[in-house]
Every structure is written in structure tokens, then in C-alpha cells.
């Protein structure tokens, strides 16, 4: 027998019957295993160019570099402490506001100049004759229509939040998804990479209309996703309704509104659902996907039967799974609509501070979560 | 490969680097629509702007670097072949070198652990990669990266002793790598150091695969793939190395000497 065949399978690739002796050695030696962090590689240079020599880094890294940095910090700190001027007055974080028309106010003070600052906690109000534009840090712009009340709630590096108490805003956001959030009295709008208009009526109900990209609308565990060309109403005490494309038939839209916000008898509920199902076009699969989790029993089966004719279920999606509202399967089917990747939303939903960090950790978390879901 | 506009937004430097359109994005462009279908190396965006009261879209094709692809789909980028990663690194892609680090750090660590005191190994692993990075353009055969990097690691271990105090020897300067008998009531910690010390007395051909298998947790096929050795030689060396290690650990010093001589 060749010598190379004598090796036991466990020593070779960890398979087969575990060899107690090898296992013991592994357990003892694991403490020496590599666990260091990668070094900070020098910044990439232009494509096709050769890397410069980083010999000096090799000399410095890492202990000598640490010593040099420590000395530099001491020198800089010392010089700073001995020569610094009186500290300037603290400035609260805020966003620039430009007056477009009339006399908008910030905390009841009229904006006199062309530009002003909306600080965290402050309220911007426009009356029937005034309009304004807010520059959202460096990630977007909000146009504030007449008769609107907007409060800046939070502005941090990866989290921006306003509260739209009443009125209409048009937001164009180029931030990472989940970074820009708008609270309304009946739901929270989460930007997922888009432009949209959000209206809040005096009674707290609202309407979100997406122009580009898509938006998540969320309240009390009820989520709606609104892609470009679609709208979603929201009511106080109910939350976001079922989104639909604006070119859907009127009877379809009315029936959805009944299902979402009205107290119906079982007969009228069935009639409304029947109307929705009979009027559904291929594009209206958007609405049906939402109805899957908003109906029960036989109604859900009817929605499924209609939906499956419009959008073939991708691999991994089964009737049984959808009927029991398996979230992974629902997500797979949503993604098959081609309207946006729902995993972005799931991250936002699951992150403790409801923010998606714009760094590679997001991607790692996403991968981990998807693996877990599989 | 499904490309996500959200991640493109999240890494807007992509746009800036590829097209210089960042300024355009923040002034004239209302938004960007992503063409859903794309190849693995390019992405087509539709820049949307308002013209005469209507929204119009202008397609813009961007080539994606490996770093961009990592931003969009990290597992796909991470799973790229050595050849692809090496070529990307040679063209200045730092992310690609980062993936190579992830893939080869254990190998480098294992090689060094067989040669230098354990307390110095982690620092030297970083040194090896920092030494390799600027030289990667000298590597002609991308699929020889593992062997090339292993050679740098071995040379670096030799340099370590050249630059160390005179008289410093690989296995005599550190108490914690002296081979000791398994018995004698020593603690787990002591036993671990004794086992490592015993492995380090083995010939290099056995020492490296044994450390990579028992310490770094690599499988035989993985060792062969990373180091560029054949499966057969790794199997033989693991087998012989394990035999000798057993003799050392069961026979103490005498066993060690006789095992190494054999």
C-alpha cells in the first residue's frame, strides 16, 4: 500500500472517524492559531501602476510605528494645550434651509435671509404662501411645500431623521439606504435609495408617492414597500396600507382602501377582495404580495392563487411556505418582483438603532443573515 | 450577479472614481436607476434628470473594480479565484489584496510558527504581507501566489534571526517551545507549549503541514492548494510527521532525538 494511503481520514481532512489523539492535539494547539487582524494596507494606487515601495512601513510596523504615533500624539497634544485659544461657542448640528417663497419660520422666527439653519429639535413651518428647501447634510434635498410643519429630529453621520407633522415634502436622497428616515403621525418612511413625495393631512393620515427607487413605510410591525410609480396611503391607528401603482383601476384602488382601512362585514370583505383579485394586472402583483400577509385562511389562498399566475415563484418558494408566511420565502418572492432587494429593509429592521451602517460590516451582516435564513 | 443600487449609493466613490460624476449627481441628477441586468464586472446606471419638465434617463456604463464588486456582493468577490485576486491586486486593487490576506494569513502564520517564537508570529505575519504587497507585480504566474508567499514567509523568518541578538536560535530562545514530556502533571497550557515545541523539532517538511493541520485547522487538500504542494506529498508528510510526533511525545527527549534521526 502506498505510504500516502496510510494516513487516517481524520488527519487528512477532518472527515471519517475522529482520531482521539489528533483531536487532543488540535484542542491543545488551537490557542496558537492565527487570530491577528489584517494590517492596514497602503492605499490602492492607479490601475496598472506598480506599487511604490513601502519598506519604511515594514521598518515601522507595528511597534515602532506605535511608538512614533505615541510621540506625535504627545507632542501635538502638548502644543495644543499650551497654545489653544478660548473654545468657540458650541454649535448644534443642523441643516441649511433656503427660503424659496414667502416667510417660512424656524421655531416661530421668520427666516429673514435667503439661508438659515434648522437645528436638531427645531421646527420649520411654512404657511399657505411660503416654501423652503432643506439641504439634508450632504445626502439629499427636501423641498417643503406650503402649509407644512417639519422638525429635525436627528442628524448623525449615518442617521438622519425628521418628523413631518403636517403638510407635504418632496425628498431626493442619495444616501445609503436606511440613512434617511421621516416620521409621520401614522407611519415612518425609510428611504431605500430614491426620490419621493410624502403628504400628511391634519388628521395624521398620509400618502407616500415614490418617484424613483423605493421607500419602506413602517408602523407597528406593518411594512409596506413602495417602488417608483406606486403610492401608499397610511392612516392613524392602522399604519401603512397596501401600496399600489397609480395607474391601477379605480375600483381596484377603492377595494384596497376598503380592505386596509374600513371595518367590513365578512360579505363586504369578500366582495372587496374579489374585486381586487379580478382587477389585478401583472404590475399589481406589488399589491398582492402585501395582501399575502394581510389576509388569512381561505382569503390568503385566493391571493396566493392569483399571485402565482402573475409572478412564478422562484426556487425555494412553496405554497405551504407562503401560506404560513415564511418570511424567507416571502422575501424571495418579493425579490422576484424586481422592485428592490428586501434584504436591505431587513437590515434596517433588525439593526438596534434602525440604521444601516454604510460600511462593509453591513455587507458581512447581510451575508451572515442570508446564510442563516437559508 | 444582482447589483443593488443601494450599495452603489453606499459607495458613491465608485461613481466618482469611474466617471467623475459626483458633482453631477449632487447638482443636476435627480436620481439613478439601475439597470437590473448586468455582467459581473460592469454596471449600467441610468442618470435621471429633468429636462423641459420631463424626466429623462441617460445610461452610464461603469466598470466595477473588485473593490466595487466586493461592495455589491462580498461573497462573490471573496470567492474569486487566486488568479483573479492576484491580477486585481497587481493592478492596484487593495481590496483584492485584503481577500488574499484572508485566504493566506493562516498559511503564513503556520509557516512562521514553525520557525520563530510564538510571541513574534502575529507581527511577522503582518510584515510578510506588507513586504509582499509592493512586490506582487514581480509575480508572473498568478496561480503560484501561495508558493511565492510561503517563500517570502520563510525568508522573513530567517531575517528575524539575522536581526535578532547574536546567538539567538530558533528553538532555544523561548522557554515556551521546549519539548516536554506529556506526563508529569503539567497544565494544559504547558502541555500545549510542549507539543508545539515537539513539532518544531521535526524536519521542516513535516513541521509545516503538521502545524497547518493541527494548529491552523487547515485540511490536507487545503494545505496542498495553498502551499502549491501535491496532495500526495502533503499526505506523506502529514503521515510521517504524525508518526514522529507520536514518538517524541511518548518518549520525551530521547524519543525526540531518535525520531528526528530516523
Description:
With 374 residues, chain A is an alpha+beta fold. Chain A has a domain at 93-241: Jelly Rolls, CATH 2.60.120. Helix content of chain A is 34%, strand content 26%. Chain A is built from twelve helices and 18 strands. Chain A has helices at 9-13, 20-29, 55-60, 63-83, 250-261, 266-279, 285-292, 297-310, 319-323, 327-336, 342-350, 360-373; strands spanning 94-101, 105-106, 109-110, 115-119, 123-126, 131-136, 140-144, 148-156, 159-173, 180-183, 188-191, 195-200, 206-212, 214-219, 222-227, 230-235, 239-240, 244-245. In chain A, helix 5 (250-261) packs antiparallel against helix 6 (266-279) and helix 7 (285-292) runs antiparallel to helix 8 (297-310). The relative contact order of chain A is 0.06. Chain B has 262 residues and is mostly helical. The longest helix of chain B has 31 residues, at 231-261. Chain B has 13 helices and three strands; from the N terminus they run H-H-H-E-E-E-H-H-H-H-H-H-H-H-H-H. The radius of gyration of chain B is 25 Å and the shape is elongated. Chain B folds into three domains: 5-72, no CATH class; 80-170, Rna Polymerase Sigma Factor, Chain: A, CATH 1.10.1740; 174-262, Orthogonal Bundle (Arc Repressor Mutant, subunit A), CATH 1.10.10. In chain B, a hairpin with a 7-residue loop joins strand 1 (31-34) and strand 2 (42-51). The model of chain B is unreliable at 1-29, 34-39 and 171-185 (pLDDT under 50). Classes of the chains: A alpha+beta (374), B mainly alpha (262). Chains A and B meet through helix 1, helix 2, helix 3 and helix 12 of A and helix 1, strand 1, helix 4, helix 7 and helix 8 of B.
Amino acid at each position: 500500500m502506498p505510504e500516502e494511503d496510510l494516513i487516517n481520514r481524520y488527519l487528512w481532512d477532518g472527515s471519517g472517524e475522529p482520531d482521539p489523539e489528533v483531536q487532543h492535539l488540535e484542542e491543545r494547539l488551537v490557542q496558537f492559531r492565527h487570530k491577528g487582524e489584517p494590517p492596514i494596507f497602503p492605499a490602492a494606487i492607479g490601475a496598472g501602476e506598480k506599487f511604490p515601495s513601502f519598506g519604511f512601513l515594514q521598518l515601522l510596523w507595528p511597534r515602532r510605528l506605535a511608538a512614533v504615533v505615541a510621540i506625535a500624539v504627545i507632542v501635538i497634544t502638548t502644543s495644543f494645550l499650551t497654545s489653544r485659544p478660548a473654545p468657540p461657542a458650541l454649535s448644534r448640528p443642523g441643516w441649511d434651509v433656503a427660503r424659496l417663497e414667502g416667510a417660512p419660520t424656524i421655531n416661530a422666527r421668520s427666516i429673514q435671509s435667503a439661508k438659515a439653519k434648522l437645528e436638531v429639535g427645531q421646527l420649520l413651518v411654512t404657511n399657505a404662501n411660503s416654501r423652503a428647501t432643506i439641504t439634508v447634510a450632504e445626502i439629499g434635498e427636501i423641498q417643503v411645500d406650503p402649509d407644512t410643519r417639519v422638525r429635525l429630529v436627528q442628524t448623525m453621520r449615518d442617521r438622519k431623521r425628521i418628523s413631518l407633522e403636517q403638510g407635504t415634502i418632496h425628498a431626493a436622497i442619495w444616501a445609503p439606504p436606511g440613512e434617511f428616515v421621516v416620521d409621520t403621525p401614522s407611519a415612518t418612511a425609510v428611504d431605500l435609495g430614491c426620490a419621493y413625495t410624502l403628504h400628511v393631512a391634519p388628521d395624521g393620515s398620509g400618502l407616500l408617492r415614490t418617484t424613483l427607487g423605493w421607500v419602506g413605510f413602517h408602523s407597528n410591525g406593518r411594512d409596506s414597500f413602495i417602488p417608483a410609480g406606486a403610492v401608499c396611503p397610511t392612516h392613524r391607528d392602522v399604519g401603512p396600507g397596501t401600496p399600489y401603482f397609480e395607474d391601477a383601476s379605480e375600483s381596484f384602488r377603492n377595494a384596497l382602501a376598503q380592505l386596509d382601512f374600513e371595518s367590513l362585514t365578512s360579505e363586504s370583505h369578500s366582495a372587496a377582495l374579489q374585486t381586487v383579485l379580478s382587477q389585478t394586472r401583472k404590475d399589481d402583483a406589488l399589491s398582492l404580495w402585501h395582501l399575502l400577509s394581510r389576509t388569512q385562511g381561505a382569503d390568503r389562498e385566493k391571493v396566493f392563487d392569483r399571485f402565482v399566475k402573475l409572478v412564478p415563484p422562484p426556487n425555494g418558494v412553496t405554497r405551504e411556505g407562503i401560506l404560513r408566511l415564511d418570511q424567507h420565502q416571502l422575501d424571495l418572492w418579493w425579490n422576484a418582483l424586481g422592485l428592490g432587494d428586501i434584504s436591505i429593509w431587513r437590515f434596517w429592521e433588525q439593526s438596534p438603532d434602525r440604521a444601516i451602517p454604510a460600511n462593509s460590516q453591513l455587507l458581512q451582516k447581510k451575508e451572515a443573515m442570508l446564510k442563516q435564513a437559508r | 450577479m444582482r447589483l443593488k443600487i443601494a450599495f452603489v449609493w453606499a459607495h458613491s466613490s465608485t461613481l466618482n472614481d469611474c466617471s467623475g460624476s459626483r458633482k453631477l449627481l449632487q447638482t443636476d441628477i435627480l436620481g439613478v436607476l439601475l439597470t437590473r441586468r448586468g455582467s459581473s464586472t460592469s454596471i449600467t446606471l441610468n442618470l435621471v434628470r429633468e429636462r423641459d419638465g420631463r424626466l429623462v434617463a441617460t445610461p452610464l456604463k461603469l466598470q466595477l473594480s473588485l473593490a466595487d464588486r466586493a461592495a455589491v456582493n462580498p461573497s462573490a468577490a471573496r470567492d474569486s479565484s487566486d488568479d483573479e485576486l492576484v491580477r486585481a491586486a497587481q493592478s492596484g486593487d487593495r481590496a483584492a489584496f485584503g481577500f488574499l490576506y484572508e485566504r493566506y494569513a493562516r498559511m503564513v502564520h503556520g509557516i512562521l510558527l514553525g520557525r520563530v517564537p510564538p510571541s513574534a508570529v502575529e507581527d511577522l505575519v503582518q510584515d510578510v504581507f506588507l513586504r509582499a504587497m509592493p512586490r506582487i507585480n514581480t509575480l508572473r504566474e498568478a496561480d503560484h501566489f501561495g508558493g511565492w508567499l510561503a517563500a517570502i514567509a520563510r525568508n522573513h523568518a530567517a531575517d528575524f534571526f539575522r536581526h535578532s541578538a547574536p546567538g539567538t536560535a530558533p528553538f532555544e530562545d523561548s522557554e515556551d517551545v521546549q519539548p516536554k514530556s506529556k506526563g508529569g502533571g503539567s497544565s494544559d497550557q504547558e502541555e500545549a507549549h510542549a507539543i508545539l515545541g515537539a513539532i518544531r523539532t521535526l524536519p521542516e517538511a513535516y513541521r509545516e503541514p503538521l502545524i497547518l493541520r493541527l494548529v491552523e485547522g487547515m485540511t490536507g487538500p487545503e494545505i496542498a492548494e495553498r502551499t502549491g504542494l501535491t496532495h500526495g506529498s502533503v499526505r506523506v508528510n502529514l503521515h510521517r510527521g504524525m508518526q514522529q510526533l507520536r514518538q517524541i511525545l511518548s518518549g520525551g527527549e530521547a524519543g525526540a532525538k531518535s525520531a528526528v534521526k530516523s
